[in-house]
Amino acid sequence: MLSRKAKKPAVTSSSLSTEEVQEIRTAFELFDTNNTGRISPSELKQAMQSLGFDTRNPIIYNMIGDLDTKDAAKEGGVTFETLLDAINYRLGDKDSREGLRRLYELFIDDPDTKTITINALKKVSKDLGENMRQDELSEMLTRASKNGVEITFDEFYDIMVKKSF
Questions:
Q1: pTM of the model
Q2: Which listed CATH number (1.20.1260.10, 1.10.238.10, 3.40.47.10, 1.10.8.60) goes with 14-91?
Q3: Regarding the domain with residue range 97-162, which homologous superfamily does it belong to in the CATH classification?
Q4: Is the dihedral of CA 48, 19, 59, 151 positive or negative?
Q5: Do residues 106 and 53 make contact, with C-beta atoms less than 8 angstroms apart?
Q6: Mean pLDDT by 10-residue block, N- to C-terminus, for the chain (165 residues)?
Q7: What pairing do the DSSP bridges indicate for beta strands 38-39 and 150-151?
Q8: Distance of CA 144 to the CA centre of its chain
Q9: Cα–Cα distance between 102 and 115 in angstroms, integer?
Q10: Which of 57, 62, 67, 118 has its CA 20 to 30 A from that of 104?
């Protein structure tokens, strides 16, 4: 579990690329309007939305909740390093099963199903600016899942490990 105390991330061992770290830094700085090097949890929600993360997603919501501490409030908000550490923790190692599970959970649109549905694919497509057609998304589901309706974690894992489907 992520410590409630701020700690410096090991950026060099980050599961994020240099480009991803820079995108997070840019969003952070955009919402650090008073240039204190800290942003409040409400500003953090806005920053996560600008990065394309849906703050209603349980993982993102929990991450923001973990960062919204009395210490952070006393200190004027969350630092970039604390935010980066939390994102690295939540995304995990993209090459491990646990890390891929965390990534998979970011795509789930209905926590009750624990699967990736066509609605989740539509949202991700839209968030990425792709706006794929219904028939293209249906084709993806047909190719990626056994039942053609939803992608389970095991199916997602197999796709990610094999790097194709």
A1: 0.51
A2: 1.10.238.10
A3: EF-hand (1.10.238.10)
A4: positive
A5: yes
A6: 38 64 85 86 76 66 81 87 82 71 79 86 78 90 90 89 62
A7: unpaired
A8: 21
A9: 13
A10: 67
